[in-house]
Queue: 2 jobs
Job 1
Amino acid sequence: MSRRLRVRQAQTVLPFGVGAVFDIQGESFVATGIGDWPRQRQKVESARLAAQLGVSGFYAAPPAADDRFDRQDAAGAPYIRFPAWLFCGACRRMVRWRIADEKPGTAPRCPNCSPVRQLAPMRFVQICAGGHLGDVDWWFWAHSRLEPTERQACTSRDQLRFKVSERAAGLEALSVVCTAKGCGATRDLLDVLGTHGMRCSGRNPWQRFNEAVDCTKPVQVVQRTAGNLYYPVVSSALDIPETETPAGIADEALAERVRASDMWIPLCRVFDGPRAGIFRDMIKEETRADDALLDALLAEETGSAPPPPSDAPAAPDEPAAPDLSREEWAAFMSPTPPATRDFSIRETNLGLGHEDAEPWAGLRRRVGRIVLADRLREVRALQGFRRVSPGSAFVPADTARRLRWLPAVEVFGEGVFLTLDKDVLAGWEQDERVRNRVAGLRDDLDRSFQRDRLAMVAGAELSPRFVLLHTLAHLLIRQLSFESGYSTASLRERVYARPENDQYGVLVYTAAGDAEGTLGGLVQQGEPPRLAETLLRMTEAAAWCSADPLCAEHTGQGFDNLNRAACHACALLPETSCETGNTLLDRALVVGGEQVPGYFETIVAEARSAAAAAME
């Protein structure tokens, strides 16, 4: 009986989106570009995100059947086998697997062994900073220490074996051996990782040979599960009530007349063919619609616009950098919160209105508005990906650069929105010690190759309030993971901290692909007085790290030295939970340090004093 391979619909954007390599049940696959997606895809509505990204819309792959996704007729996003070089664990023969060798629904088998053995994928692949991915040239590797004349004497490129030696350990014990008659070339894998002068294929595995480009970037050999093999570029937006007409469709009544035309369906079927002009002219004569409206409606209906004119600019080499925080902030801060089926919020408080004793009174003064989101809908769209480093060349989800839609998924959940007191925050930001502390972090950010990417979230100039609120969100997620029943990987953050937009809050939320959303455990923790108790325990826990004093006194740690007092023991989260990849964090700005006052520093001191008094 063949085993089942299945990728959930929510995983087709992250973590197994276009360009990602993943292992499943002893086999290895790569997700192909959206140009290969089935036409039975599902439309995902998010006009606000589409307008910001400059695309016609979003589509989700059809839900995968409970079957193997490598069947040609399988539902869901398409995946192909990668790497193509496989080996047998019994006879150690290496096989270059081709599409013609595939037997739908069956894993690759060794043709030489009896009983039949399943072939395993090679552990190493090659990538380049241009975003390309390919198999390692194992024949070249086995013969790389021979002279060119000796190398040319080899009569076969397919007779390779992947051998294991009992006389060594680690990668030195693994070697690739050529078994061609009269050759016997061999080389172990001790120094396989890194750059070795191999040529880049100029394409990704799902691209055709005529789509390859002349790539001169150095090739790196990495493990196929390496962290630098895939950096997805994902944008997301909450579904908040819209009051504006969708971009490109100014007259909805006229648009309805176009959709009602007898020629509309035929036009949608041949919108990019030679007969499209005939149907367009008939619709324009019947409805008096112009070309701009027809283009917008076709893009909305089909997901891909007609071919652009010859003088149209080429597809951008960098992803769009939308700022979607303004509308979301306004929705959460509205005195009369808007409500829809997918956006249901209500204001509450910490439940400390009559508390005069410390630390509760101090906590009340430092926390502003509390909003509980009983239901949220979020759309997550994959713009593309990078390889080698987050600052490398951007590869769009449609590698052919013909489509104007993006892959996306919608998730439903709940959350807690929290703001700080505006006046207390403004006074704290003016402290010279705080400004100097953040100035050093800002200098490190300006030198980082991640500067442009992080500026999408943090703003053009890194502000003290962003570092404070970002760190607060991390600490709150870690504390809520103990009290709400959700793991840290299930919780996410949205930081609203742009001074130019007068923002000073965070949203901690969770979301799942199920249409019913989540179970309410997070919102329950936001009810008074639970949230106040959670915040107090959070500050007490953050005041001490098991890596102190090293962590607390650090002047630069983490990726590109973009963290200060923040490490895995106290503030870092799973990568999927953080908007900035676990950078721009400083615990000292929350609870204080020797050289900087923390926003909640007095809360920690009062809590300790109250605990000491209770013990006397």
Job 2
Amino acid sequence: MAAFAASLSCVAPAAAQSLQAQQFGARETVRDVSISPDGQRLAMLISSGKRGTGLVVVSLDGQMKPILNYPGEQPVRLANCSWSTFERLVCTLYGIVSNEGKPAGMTRMIAVNADGSNLKELSARQGTRDLYERFYGGDILDWLPDERSSAVLMLRHFVPEHGTGTLLASSREGLGVERVDTVTLKRSMVEPPRPTATEFITDGHGTARVMATRARLSSGYSSNERVYKYRRPGGKEWEPLSTVVENGYATTGFDPWAVDRDLNVAYGFDNLDGRKALYKISLDGSLKRELVLARPDVDIDRLVRIGRQRRVVGVSYATEQRLVSFFDPRLKALTGSIAKALAGTPVVSVQDASLDENKLVIFVGSDLDPGRYYVLDRATKKMAEISPVRPELAGVKLAAVKPISYKAADGTMVPAYLTLPPGSDGRNLPAIVMPHGGPAARDEWGFDWLSQFFAARGYAVLQPNYRGSSGYGEKWFRDNGFRSWKLAMGDVNDAGRWLVSEGISSADKLAIVGWSYGGYAALQSSVLDPNVFKAIAAVAPVTDLDALRDEMKDYSSDGQVKDIIGSAALWKEASPAANAARIKAPVLLFHGDLDLNVAIGQSQTMAAKLRGAGGKVELVEYKGLDHQLDDSAVRTEMLDKIDRFLRTSMGLPAMP
């Protein structure tokens, strides 16, 4: 079945760029795979051309039919696609539009037959009398697996209408739930909209059991408290369940994620001894609370779910590698046997399942394998490969990723991942410290196209989970990487010093590369100590916290902004742009002009401040792209430019 993968390749040759930049800059060929309820066909979300996305339907005998293609000429792409019936698919389109002169994200849901016919928009149409634009097109809340119909439960944001000149204008507003037929588009109300509603959770069988609301403050902003209520089986009344208080990136209180109908419980996360743990709470009126899993070293942070009803089968957490604790012993045995059979690919996850769960879509991968999809027939115990995720890397020797810890200046051991060039003895190499984005995030073991590219070009790469990273509990996260920036940047700089002390690199061959908050760290680490890194590359970095405050005010109160980036007294010392004169190393910046996460003005300000301070800087702007720079040609160019920039800046010999 994998034979068709080569036809999906989207890398165009570029003679002036290194072969490795082309190979690693290519986007994932296969982005997602969904299996039909009858287990007979697969829907594959693929990359199309340089920056487009497409949908193909593949029968299990290998016949492939292209269904949809969005070439990327406009900032619109397929975000996901899943089956609503044996013959019908539901997809989400994501696009970027102009909203009062600023770019804004917009989603719309569509339905299409497996042969490409009968394409219809599922999202409620924007009315001519609507008071404002509806940017959110809804989501599938429940696939109604117990029915043999073409209906689903959908979330919908209701917009009130102008009332001038009519008595029929609707005043309904807020988030609600509708039953929508994906063929006829017939709609009926299931949960009426509430202006304060932010979330609904069903039991996977068509019944809304949990609802979250968030009060609107007199200032016009939303409260930082999410109030959850639940219904008993067969009940109509909403009863109190929990309250989750948000403090910047951190939360306290039971945060429900799923409902198990058969056990009549809600699964969710809450704090225990400073770390996230998984609990379940009975929904029978007793609210009996039971600890499911906790660890003394890391947060428990993900549920493992499969099937049309999205049933909870386990829980996941990341130590040196991501691990799964299964509740379902059969799935535990199954994934264990797959990992054993496919030696060297310990990352095994169930991506999707047929209605009877006899056929599963499996993803496997490792640090040395970008990943590949398989379809498993549990009845015959046969597994067939669907496609590798990155066929351009077939035959390319990848670098092993080793979990390590290094000592920070205050003696704290900081976890990190070290990637050395394949075949290297790990001595006297040019090296890159690559801090992750977020800052409420962490790096994990596995394939990383950025670090693997640099390793292929001869660099050692160290990815630190500095203090301010998530996943290690409240104490490690501190006040996040903005408010506790000196601690976070100290750990980042100490990562570079460790590379030198271990003989892996030398002080004149150290560089730093980061994306998003990682780009902020790449710049701000040199504000703390200008002498550690000899070259800085930052992709879509935050550089000016005062400007970030202004951007956040569109959707966050002053208190919420302060919880994330602190008070005005901190912004100057914590902003790279305000301290550009301290940065000695040459800087290379990249940014998409439609970035919704970090406005391109952040890089433009940084470049101007560096030039004004006499620094050496280049800013590369990419038109029509957002935060991810999801374009194979652009990523190829970016990788090649960073490599050449680092070699020039550190006096390294050129490579073909």
